[in-house]
Automatic annotation (TrEMBL):
Xref: InterPro entries: FAM107
GO cellular component: focal adhesion; neuron projection; nucleus; plasma membrane; stress fiber; synapse
Role, per record: Stress-inducible actin-binding protein that plays a role in synaptic and cognitive functions by modulating actin filamentous (F-actin) dynamics. Mediates polymerization of globular actin to F-actin. Also binds to, stabilizes and bundles F-actin. Involved in synaptic function by regulating neurite outgrowth in an actin-dependent manner and for the acquisition of hippocampus-dependent cognitive function, such as learning and long-term memory.
Subcellular location: Cell junction, Focal adhesion; Cell membrane; Cell projection; Cytoplasm, Cytoskeleton, Stress fiber
Protein name: Actin-associated protein FAM107A
Any one GO BP annotation for this protein: actin filament bundle assembly
Any Pfam family: DUF1151
Entry superkingdom: Eukaryota
Annotated organism of origin: Fregetta grallaria
The entry's keywords: Actin-binding, Cell cycle, Cell junction, Cell membrane, Cell projection, Coiled coil, Cytoplasm, Cytoskeleton, Growth regulation, Membrane, Nucleus, Stress response, Synapse
Length: 153
């Protein structure tokens, strides 16, 4: 209610008209048609007033009239997704065929390579745990061997 704009005499009349204590929900002022009262205006929803929302709503209505569901996609998007899916399936099949076509010799080489990598990793771990003086001693041996080989040549 906008009672603060009313003269005191109108305020008392409104109070007399509302025997339930002025419950706005059951007995609003603007229904009376009193020209002195300021009638409330409906507020605009900024989302609904936006151009993009209106265009989206219009498009949804058109799709509904045509019988297209919301979950249906444009043709171009469906074709692209279908191509992507087929391409992924083809790649997986090619990878599987490549694994099947590996000769026993290639498989054995791969196993040996993996074992060598594993052994190298274990050696690095052991070297990391060795005391520093052992590491320095090994480095000295290597340098002495290199210099000794250079002298012989």
């Amino acid at each position: 209610k906008h009672l603060f704009f009313l003269p005191a005499s109108m305020y008392t009349e409104i109070q007399r008209e509302q025997p339930d204590g002025g419950n706005i929900l059951t007995h609003p002022d603007y229904i009376d048609g009193n020209p002195d009262l300021i009638k409330p205006k409906k507020l605009l929803n900024p989302v609904k007033a936006s151009k993009s929302h209106q265009e989206l709503h219009r498009e949804l209505l058109m799709n509904h009239k045509r019988g297209l569901g919301v979950e249906s996609k444009p043709e171009l998007q469906r074709v692209l997704e279908h191509r992507r899916r087929n391409q992924l399936i083809r790649q997986k099949k090619e990878e599987e065929e490549a694994k099947k076509l590996q000769s026993p010799f290639e498989k054995e080489l791969l196993k040996r390579h993996q074992r060598l990598d594993q052994l190298e990793k274990e050696q690095e771990k052991q070297e990391d745990h060795a005391p520093e003086f052992i590491k320095v001693k090994e480095n000295l041996r290597r340098t002495s061997m290199v210099t000794g080989d250079e002298k012989a040549a």
